[in-house]
Amino acid sequence: MYLWKCWCDIRAFFLGFLTIAAIVMPVASAVCVGTGLMTDFGAEAFLTSFATIVPMTALLLAAISANERLAQNTLHFLFTKPRRRSYFVWTAFAVGFMEFLTVALANLLSGWITLSRYSKHPFGSNLAQSWHKQSAR
User: Do 31 and 119 contact (CB within 8 A), yes or no?
Assistant: First the structure.
């Protein structure tokens, strides 16, 4: 029951964030048509979008979820139920983690499909070089 409540409280925001995560790379590639930027810098653009969108989505979903609990005064009600507090904490954590994982996978899949259109090995040598450049900074 609480699992369904967690999902219902946040699903509109989650679907919005999922849409944003899925369309970032296709929109970037559509903007760069004819310039060759996706061929040269596509992997770096993907890493930057992934490193920005995924953590921000996690923070925003957590803040919105906490705000829903406080605004509806359900926090006091939940902690007075004959269940352990750990049940509520771990259920909310599981819902949040699945939402986070879904957004990350949507962004990863969208980026992979977009980059595979512009190179034979979208996550091959270009991504490895970009990753090492960013980690060296």
Answer: no
pLDDT digits (tens, 9 = 90+) for 5-23: 777 778 888 899 899 888 8
Place of tokens 């995924």: 54
**How is residue 53 written in tokens?**
């969108």
One-letter amino acid for residue 133 of the chain: K
DSSP notation for 52-117: HHHHHHHHHHHHHHHHHHHHTTHHHHHHTSSS-HHHHHHHHHHHHHHHHHHHHHHHHHHHHHHHHH
Contacts of 45 (CB under 8 A, 6+ apart): 25, 28, 37, 38
**Burial per residue of 32-41, b for 16 or more beta-carbon CB atoms within 10 angstroms, e otherwise:** beeeebbeeb
What is the identity of the amino acid at 50? F
- AA letter at 2: Y
Residue 27, amino acid: V
Which pLDDT score is estimated for 38? Answer: 67
